[in-house]
Every structure is written in C-alpha cells, then in structure tokens.
Amino acid sequence: MNTRDPAEFYSELQSEVGRVLVGNTDVVEGLAIALLTRSHVLLEGVPGVAKTTVANLFARASGLDVNRIQMTPDILPADITGTHIYREATGEFELHRGPVFANVLIADEINRATPKSQSALLEAMQERSVTIEGDTLELPDPFLVVATQNPIEMVGTFELPEAQRDRFQQRLVMDLPERDEERQILDEFDEQPTLGPEVVEAITSPDELRSYRERLDDVYVAPPVKEYVLDLIAASRDHPDVRHGTSPRASLALLNASKARALLRDRSYVIPDDVKGLAHQVIAHRLILHTDAELSEATESDVVADLLERVDPPGSVSLDRHNGLDAGERVVEPME
C-alpha cells in the first residue's frame, strides 16, 4: 500500500492542478476536503471563472472517473440516474446507467433544472445509491457531486431548496482573478492556446484516497475546539438577522471538514483556525435571513463574519495520546 503522507499528496495535487489553474488554491482544498469526508460541494461564481474546469482538473488529478451533465429546465430525473431501455433484438429491458454513475459528477448550472430534477440528486448525495424502477443500485466509491451555479443570473432558474443546500458540505466561491493572476492566464494561454484538463495526470488512485479517509478517525479534536464549533452553530441560530439557523448536520460538517483540513496540513489534531477557516464555506449557504436583513442588503457571509467576531475561539488546544503522551501528561499547543 502507498504510504505517502496525506499532506504530501495534497501538495502534489495542488501542483498538478496548478499546471492549468491559476490561483483558487482554496477551492482545490475545499474539493479535497469534501472528497475525504464523503461530502459534496456547491461551486458558485460568475460565468467564465473556470468552475467546470477546476472540477475537471481536480477529478483528473485525483485519478477519478468524471461525468458532466448540463442541467436545463427540460432535463428529467431519468436523464441523471438512468433507466431501463427495451432492446428489440433481445426482447429484454437493459439497464442504461445515467451520468450519476461516476466518482465525480459535475452538475453544471444546477439551478437551471426544475426542483423535480434537482431532487433526483438527493438520494444519490445522501444515500450514495439510486433507485431505478424499483432497483436500488450502489454508486461508485468515492462519490462526489460538484454542482455549479451562477449567482447573478436569475432568469429561468430555480433556487435550490433549503433541504438540498443543506446536503452540500461546502459552498465554494470562485471570484474574478486579480490583475496579476489574469496576466498569468493570458500568458499561459497565449503560449498554449489548447491548454486544458487533458494535460493533467493522475497523482493518486481511489484506493489511496480511501486510505486517507480512514486516517481521519485518528485526527484528534480537543473538547474546547468542539465547544467552539457548538458555539458558532448556536450563535447562527440566535443571530438577529437569521430566520432559520443551521442544523446538527452543519455542526457535523464543520467538525469533519476541520479534521480533513488538519490532515491535509500535516497535523493529527484540529486547531481553532481550522474551524475559522472553514466557517464561511460550511455555514453561510445554510442560513435563511429575515426579510428585513435581505432588504438592508445583508448577506449570509456578513452574518458568518459577525459570528466569527462575536464568538471567541479557545486560546490553545490541549493534546494527549496523539502526541504519544500518557493520560496524565499534557502539553499546550499554540494556535497557528
């Protein structure tokens, strides 16, 4: 079995994806965290910022099968999951598997599909299986849904319902590049006009990724850090701008994502900065604001920023068995 360290794998992943992608290392990290924690990602950004490209790059570098489906108003649930097709030559029905049967499914512009078609992904995302005409079929392992959406174009779209947004561990936002990054993009594509995901090589395999997932169980979370997670979640429910706060699924998502972030950063323990660094992408898309807050142009991200200001993190993290210490011997590790 490959004994490569998860942090080494993550460094190589960023380098391989960086052969095409300029910037957005935080998006690649978010995708890696979701993959290791058996979760899914909502990727948001204006047209032209390479949302679909980054998902393709990540899948190829991770050695995973990837399928893309363009979500449109006329797409049917069977177009996503699959159906049985009658073969006249044999006189039998044959199962035709839909694009959901892949390690990575890119659901492009998910908010253009009707709620009925959007809901076809719910079972796949939650249960990691689909039911086709009464038959329940397991999906590949690993399985990751990367759904993209455009936040500024609302005509002809269907907003994701709260229940579906809650199924996504993170909402990752791809912003427009800085001027120096855009200059680098111009230079690279001027030299190689056909540069694309096909130049990226796999630097890992599904078996290796599954071994990294197993190591998450050994990442230690000290009680003060768990309390910090609970404090942030509780504050999201009591915030004056929030009509509906986050559910226990959000606290679990924040905890598990923090463990994966620690693992990718070569630590066997979670620190408060892991929680703070993931709060926006785990909590914001789950919040439902009061109408007054929306009218005053407050955003979910503004609320999370306020939560991080109001809720004090623990000043240090006590470590124990993960540093090879006896139960009575404890040390204090400073925050990063």
From TrEMBL:
It holds the Pfam family AAA_3. Residues 315-336 are annotated as: Disordered. Residues 319-336 have a biased composition (Basic and acidic residues). Coiled coil: none annotated. It comes from the Archaea. PANTHER family: MAGNESIUM-CHELATASE SUBUNIT CHLD (PTHR42759:SF1), MOXR FAMILY PROTEIN (PTHR42759). This is AAA family ATPase.
